[in-house]
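ARCHIVE CARD
CATEGORY: sequence design from structure
SOURCE FIELD: tokenized fold
FIELD CONTENT:
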């Protein structure tokens, strides 16, 4: 894909961190940051107030309140649409949002609708960041509501990916891996005597309708099948139940894994593209089925927390019994005072 014709949009703090990482990785991307708090913007190296940042006026954060976020984006819909129209050359818009938060979670459905109206020719991709199973009840509830919002506008979305926050120990590790994997996917192109992947091929793979899968193959494993299995296990993205896909892109190190063996590992319904390079191994699948296991686990986690909350008996006052008779007599006396007011 042509990076200068890509627009990366970060809705909220968590999403903004990923967009900032991609812009640091390659300055050819265009990026926009949307937020309700200037404090979330300040740490970002590539966010410039007045240039590529939109702060909802008169707000100071959403407090993870999706309803508040929905109201904010609806109040600013015209201004946001006008801003997006300044990027008419955009071929692919990638919208990032943390599903368990407030600003991005509550805004993403309306933002997708605004984007589709503002730039009707653009392909809209979504990268949804799911909460880890160690987070709280509100994060789970927000994520499930956001999931339903996304599904109600799925007809406007081309490629969609979900980040699994359970796959690393820290958010920094997750963000770094997401940035590296997506940049590899968007840099899928290559020219080689045994196969080429051009910008149009990469565009077709990365914007196929359905879920996208990015797999980094590590060197030194005994064969391609082992490398694929390890890449699936190590991926920070939620994985589909099956790896049937419309398009398969393979870009491998020269004299490394066997591309034919990799191709046989997947059911591809349209086209497979292969090329070679000197530094990395990446496989990109376009048009897979939507992965649902991660969201089912979030629903189970929410149900579990809800049950424990309902069974919780919060003790507020406790009467202590004394074995000593003297203590009992002294402490069992009725010291209750009665008040009357005229």
């Amino acid at each position: 894909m042509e990076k200068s014709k890509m627009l990366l949009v970060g809705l909220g703090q968590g999403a903004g961190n990923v967009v900032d990482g991609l812009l640091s990785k390659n300055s050819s991307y265009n990026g926009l940051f949307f937020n309700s708090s200037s404090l979330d913007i300040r740490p970002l190296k590539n966010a410039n107030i007045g240039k590529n940042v939109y702060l909802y006026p008169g707000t100071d954060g959403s407090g993870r309140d999706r309803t508040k976020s929905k109201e904010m984006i609806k109040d600013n819909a015209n201004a946001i649409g006008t801003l997006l129209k300044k990027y008419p050359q955009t071929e692919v818009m990638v919208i990032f949002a943390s599903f368990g938060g407030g600003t991005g979670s509550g805004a993403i459905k309306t933002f997708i609708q605004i984007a589709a109206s503002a730039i009707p020719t653009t392909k809209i991709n979504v990268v949804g960041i799911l909460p880890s199973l160690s987070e709280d009840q509100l994060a789970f509830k927000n994520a499930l509501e956001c999931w339903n919002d996304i599904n109600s506008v799925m007809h406007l979305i081309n490629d969609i990916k979900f980040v699994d926050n359970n796959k690393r120990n820290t958010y920094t590790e997750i963000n770094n891996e997401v940035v590296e994997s997506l940049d590899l996917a968007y840099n899928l192109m290559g020219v080689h005597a045994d196969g080429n992947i051009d910008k149009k091929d990469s565009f077709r793979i990365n914007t196929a309708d359905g879920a996208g899968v990015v797999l980094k193959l590590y060197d030194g494993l005994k064969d391609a099948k082992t490398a694929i299995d390890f890449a699936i296990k190590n991926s920070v993205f939620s994985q589909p139940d099956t790896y049937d896909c419309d398009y398969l892109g393979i870009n491998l190190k020269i004299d490394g894994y066997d591309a034919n063996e990799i191709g046989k590992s997947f059911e591809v319904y349209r086209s497979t593209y292969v090329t070679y390079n000197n530094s990395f191994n990446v496989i990109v699948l376009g048009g897979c089925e939507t992965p649902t296991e991660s969201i089912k686990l979030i629903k189970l986690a929410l149900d579990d927390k809800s049950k424990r909350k309902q069974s919780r008996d919060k003790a507020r006052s406790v009467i202590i019994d004394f074995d000593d008779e003297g203590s009992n007599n002294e402490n069992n006396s009725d010291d209750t005072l009665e008040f009357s007011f005229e």
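CARD ANNOTATION: The first strand starts at residue 6 and ends at 11. The two ends are 82 Å apart (CA to CA).
SHELF: design records, drawer C
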